[in-house]
Write a structure and sequence with these properties.
The structure holds two protein chains of two kinds.
Chain A: H1 2-10, E1 22-26, E2 29-32, H2 33-55, H3 64-82, H4 86-109, E3 120-121, E4 124-125, H5 134-156, H6 159-164, H7 174-216, H8 220-265, H9 279-285
Antiparallel strand pairs in A: 1-2, 3-4
Helix pairs in contact in A: 1-7, 2-4, 3-4, 3-8, 4-8, 5-7, 5-8, 7-8
Chain B: H1 2-7, H2 10-43, H3 51-71
Helix pairs in contact in B: 2-3
The chains are: A mainly alpha, B mainly alpha.
């Protein structure tokens, strides 16, 4: 049955769609197949995680619940250890855990034969991986970076103080001004780099599977299987990378702000000579 | 040049060059990262816990290859 679906997936040559298709229109709003798929995934993730949250016991029962528990634990440790102050890190854990599971589920369910060219409604495929659509990943990237900017401004205590962090010295010095502006620009390109990486990885995976299913024709399951397995790995890796990169962007800004706040609260008398040697360097070497 | 452009579909040659050239760099870069990681683990087995950091750099390097891939949709 899987073989039949995979050959259907490839029957018209490796047709590759990079843009999503409109499935129906809802009061002037265009609902594309990737939005539809995103809703399905969101519903699944809400139902699944709510159910798992009630199932958690002190003595693990195994199965799916434990698998999700391990994932939550992994991301929780990752986020908490990125921050100097673990209490601050704990505040942002729920967002990153949700982000990780949403991207992971999206990527993994996107490898199913019914998602993509195999399952059509009229002209267009009914489902399309939400992360295989630039609009979807751009939305995830923009909202993640909005959270990062918002949290950094809140932790540094005001937008002026936040903007000051980009300049290593006085902004009146032309060199520092140029470097500071360049830093700001680099910060803005993170939205694009985050979303483009996820989108292109998933789209290239779809294309590679489509091409190898096409080349195999009758033996499509055999030729496409190794690449589907590879995509399983890539999907998990991309979910991890998206989460850890956005965590790092947030942690760098928040740690920097916290360090400045600590520095400001100290007077000249109680600043020891070795204030520059912070724990970060020691951790890195250990 | 115009004669060649009429006889041959130059866009395909351009796309091929773009893909080839654009993938060489990240391939070397990811190889270097993996090699350095294994070297570090070989020298100090406790460094094996830094696989996550190595993967972040893989992601950063890989982006440039992906950008080269995305550019082939612009070439007509």
């Amino acid at each position: 049955m899987i073989g039949g679906l995979l050959t259907r997936f490839a029957e018209a040559g490796p047709t590759v769609h990079v843009a999503p298709h409109e499935v129906f229109s809802l009061g002037g709003l265009t609902i594309t197949n990737s939005i539809l798929y995103g809703w399905v995934c969101a519903l699944i993730i809400i139902a699944l995680l709510t159910w798992v949250a009630r199932q958690v016991t002190l003595r693990p029962k195994g199965g799916l619940v434990q698998f999700i528990e391990v994932g939550v634990d992994f991301i929780t440790n990752l986020v908490e250890n990125s921050f100097d102050d673990k209490k601050v890190g704990r505040r942002y854990v729920p967002f990153f855990v949700t982000l990780f599971f949403f991207i992971l589920l999206n990527n993994w369910l996107g490898l199913m034969p019914i998602v993509g060219e195999g399952f059509r409604s009229g002209e267009a495929p009914l489902f399309r991986p939400f992360t295989g659509d630039l609009n979807g990943t751009l939305a995830i990237g923009v909202f993640t970076m909005l959270l990062v900017y918002g949290a950094s401004i809140r932790e540094s205590g005001g937008i002026i103080k936040y903007l000051k962090h980009f300049f290593i010295g006085s902004p009146l010095n032309p060199l520092f001004l140029v470097i500071g502006l360049l830093e700001m620009f680099t910060d803005l390109t993170r939205v694009l780099s985050l979303s483009l990486r996820l989108f292109l990885n998933i789209t290239i995976g779809e294309i590679v599977i489509a091409v190898f299913a096409y080349l195999g024709s009758v033996a499509a399951p055999i030729t496409a299987l190794p690449f589907t397995m590879l995509e399983f790995l890539v999907a998990a890796l991309q979910a991890y990378i998206f989460t850890i990169l956005s965590t790092m962007y947030l942690a760098i800004a928040v740690n920097h702000a916290a360090e400045h706040a600590r520095h400001d609260s100290l007077t000249d008398d109680d600043v020891p000579e070795t204030i520059g040697v912070n724990t970060g360097a020691v951790h890195g070497r250990a | 040049m115009a004669i060649i452009a009429d006889a041959v579909n130059t866009a395909i040659i351009g796309k091929g060059l773009m893909i080839g050239g654009g993938f060489i760099g990240p391939a070397i870069g990811i190889g270097l990262i993996g090699g350095s990681y294994l070297q570090a683990v070989g020298r100090n087995p406790e460094a094996a816990k830094f696989l996550g950091q190595a993967l972040i750099f893989v992601a950063i390097v890989e982006l440039f290859g992906l950008l080269a891939f995305a550019s082939i949709f612009i070439v007509k």
